[in-house]
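User: hey, got a sec? need O-acetyl-ADP-ribose deacetylase folded
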Amino acid sequence: MNTAPDDSQVPSAPGPRLVLVRGDITEQQVDAVVNAANSSLLGGGGVDGAIHRRGGPEVLAACRELRASRYGRGLPTGRAVATTAGRLPARWVIHTVGPRYAQDDDRSALLASCYRESLRVADELGARTVAFPAVSAGIYGWPMADAARIAVATVRATPTAVEEVRFVLFDDRAYEAFAAQLP
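Assistant: Yep! Here you go:
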């Protein structure tokens, strides 16, 4: 599977360069990898499970510490928090909890908040390169085209010192949905 950035690099001024990557987010050599976490922070399926498996016990231990201190009831939807990346090739994992899609309830502001809050945390860490998955577009059921629209628009509109945002997309359908959002 190709995990190197391809020709879908879009310089955006001001703001980070947007890059699309077809591949595995756990293989990205970046400052911070964003985890599409569940509120428990203790691992799960999809991206969350992959990050916890590859990151190893250090990521889980850091998440347990967060649960024992600041987030006893779990991380709220739309918020973000950082931990070590453990055995991942990144320095940090930024965990964010995306909303579940509901056709009769517009939760797009919460989804946008995941990207804004993750960039805020990245800035606090001093991260210059950040890899995002398609938050909420997996098991949480968000339609991929709409998830891509919200992700790209939010990253473009959010002031940040991050220099490069990679959208790491696992399959062709996700990649094409994000590519459609770039000029």
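Quick note: Residues 14-179 form a domain with the Leucine Aminopeptidase, subunit E; domain 1 fold (CATH 3.40.220.10). Let me know if you need anything else on O-acetyl-ADP-ribose deacetylase.
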